[in-house]
Amino acid sequence: MTHQRLLPFLAATATLTMASALAAQTPLGQMLITSASFTAEQAARGKQAYASANCMACHGPDASGGQFGPPLTGPAFMAKWGGQNAQALYTYIRANMPPGQAGSVSAATYADLTAYVLEANGAKAGPTPFGAATAAPTPNTAPPEASGPSRFGRPEANKDAIYQQETARKGALLSALRAVDDSMLQAPPTGDWLMWRRAYDGLGHSPLAEINRKTVGGLGLSWSWTLAASLNEITPLVHDGVIFVHSGASVQALDATNGDPLWSYTRDLPDNLRGGRSGRSKGMAIYGHTLFMPMVDGHLIALDARSGKPLWDHQVLTPEEVAKGVQLNGIPIVAKGKVMMGITQSLTVKGGCYIFALDAATGEEAWRFNTVAQPGETGGDSWNGVPAKERFGGSQWTGGSYDPELGLVYFGVGNTYNTATLLQAGDPPSPKNAGLFTESTIALDPATGKLAWHYQHMTRDVWDMDWVFEQSLLNLPINGTPRKLVVTGGKMALFDAVDRRDGRYVFSRDAGLQNIVTAIDPVTGAKTYNPALKPVSGEQKLICPGSSGFRNWMSTAYDPASHLLFIPMFENCGNFTWSRRDATATAAGGIDQSFQTRKMPESDGNFGRIQAIDLATGKTAWTMRQRPVISSSMLATAGGVVFAGSGDRMFRAYDSATGKVLWQTRLASTASASPITYSVKGEQYVAVVSGGGNPQDTGWASLAPEITNPSGSTVLWVFKLPKAR
């Protein structure tokens, strides 16, 4: 029988079979209809959405079936869905449609589409709308069915012996996940990557060495997986052979050896959040059998790592705050049973930001710490005496580090953006206008949120030089005495080391490019600023770096054996202008600075830079320069190899001792993320997410306009060495 003659035969057979099945289960067939609750307005909107959301192209103009998709009405449809409720239909549509673009429309539109399908199958509209409140999505814990269009329609999934075997294999992998306890977080298994920078010390360094200077040239693609679209900055986590990744509105668990999906969770979001596409998913945390992740709607949620089942959901930010630009775009850290992270503030919200802690078991809030000191609190007298409503900023948009021996968690805090308060009456920098706790490292007790100490790296920063980045916990001999240090650097690529027991200043290391700080007190670390760069209202100044920074959210990595700190950098300056604002404008919020990215004086056209600084001596071991910027965090390994991505879509491995390129490959889009490495059954893998679009990706575009990259593609890439024969 020819292919053309076979099609009508199969279609007729399928229709008869489904019709017979429907007749045999008429009572069950009514479950879909009787469980429905929707309004006529919803169904009407759903019909319009059906025509514009790629539905009609596959399923036909009247939903009765098309050339590529099965019918959504009639006996064949009811044979599959008649025995299920409306929530199951909604969840399926939300997780799978349109094929290859799941989540591309809002939760409300998915609810409208469900209402249209229900009405098309005989359900009657009523006064109660159908939506997320009545049909919250449940995680897909079974192996997902193929979601691509089929010329032969889509009968009930074939759950034969092969299916059962594969389901059992995946279930066994999830069931074998060990609970991540305090001891495991303090000393992660060699092959795991359990938090943002792998371990509590925040070093971005792995002890794995199978991939090393001699073998790295053999790296090849092991597998890849397309993620929900987002602004990236993603750090996957790996535990016991399972890789967890969060992008947009979705969280997924995959087999770390081959990318097979194990479960997925997709969150319903309001229309204005565009399915999470505008979110920056820097990282998650894991503790026990629970994954913790911030969502673009201002909620921090907990999922069972073995199934994707929601365990609790804590609303940190109100929809009104989210609409004003307040975000959870940092990274949670778990210590002493608390999940901690900070918020990022819009310029229109008064009073400043905070770091909060939730109980890991229940999601209940345990404490908050104000990163903009309030009147009457420690540091409250450092804002020129103005009321809280005229204090802004103090955002915390990366992650923290933790010292279990000292029982302290360390966070960096950003700047104020609105500098009018700190420049009041043209006062020089002083304790009165320091603006605590902006541009500071703060050490907190994770159990209570109580401040142990703080160190302000820049007093009265009025140039947007954020010191909000990673807090690297390391041990170095200072004058023959071992010191427990916390090292961090702001946008100037100027790094301070302070004693992590009490915050006392130890030393600074400057990459040597900035023009803002002219001197540093060797005892206190206090900075002297370039008087030529003092803000004068309406007068343009050339500052180096510009607002993008020489370094930004892309994290450094540190090799404890060599004491080398690897810094991903962008060589740039900026035309900076400050505009004086009156008290009324200041109280209303809003930025009073403007920046235009410019090349550095006498630039040779190379903007990307990796600089390796020996923290023990302050000397630069090597520098790599190129035209495209470094777009990813650094990853260091015990194999003597460091990894980084750049703005030309290249992902490279460098010799950690010399900076020589040892291996490279080109990705589908920019690796604007934090690469990781892990091992399963003795095989080492390197993983990175590509897909640009975050603000840092656009900051350098005007300086190298010939470099263009695609948008809208967020992909997890995983590489490994070939197996020995």
Strand residue percentage: 25-35%
**How far from one another are the termini?**
46 Å
Strand order of the largest sheet: 1-32-33-34-35
Identify low-pLDDT runs. 1-28, 132-155
- What CATH first level of the domain at 316-538 would be assigned? Mainly Beta
Description:
There is one protein chain. This protein is an alpha+beta fold. The two termini are 46 Å apart. Helix content is 16%, strand content 28%. It is built from 13 helices and 38 strands. Among the domains are: 135 residues, Cytochrome Bc1 Complex, Chain D, domain 2 (Orthogonal Bundle), CATH 1.10.760; 223 residues, 8 Propeller (Methanol Dehydrogenase, Chain A), CATH 2.140.10. The N terminus is likely disordered. The strands form ten sheets. The protein has a five-stranded mixed β-sheet with strand order 1-32-33-34-35, with no helix packed on it. The chain is globular and about 80 Å long.
